[in-house]
Amino acid sequence: MNKKLLSSYKFGLIGGAFCIAAFVVFKLIGMDPTKLSMLFGYFLIPFFLFIGIRFYRNQVNQGLLSFSEGMSIGFLIYSITGLVSGLGIWVILIFSSSLYEEIKTKKIEILTENKDLIVEQMGVESYDVTYQSLLEMTALDIATNDFIWKIIPGLFFTIIISIILRRNFK
């Protein structure tokens, strides 16, 4: 496992740093950093998974890669990326309470604007529960959501990339 961790942590760290940078850049250009950072992650995660798994196969494991090795390397990469991204966003939101309040207010506004549609489709109870949860939302909730939305596509892309890059013979 040491060989796998040593060959994959740098891809996870760089991916996480890119996600944090995207969060900051999207905020600076006046866009919703939570949604766009998540969308950016959908393109970034597969890129770093591919180059990380390929690096392990070609540079560390003499051109061989089993499906389980690809899954292990991918897990490490997307977990580290999600962890770094989530922690970075959490720290940013803790030190920038105005950004946190802006994000929270924007989410409440969007929910309020779509009240009729939500009540029609889900019921008034669902709307009320969602509204209450947004009122109680913390910076850690936003960071956790970012982490989760790095992990879910990471697993999906890891399966595909591990199958594509699998090579059991030279």
From TrEMBL:
The keyword 4Fe-4S does not apply. It comes from the Bacteria. Keywords: Membrane, Transmembrane, Transmembrane helix. The chain crosses the membrane at residues 12-30, 36-55, 75-95, 147-165. This is DUF4199 domain-containing protein.
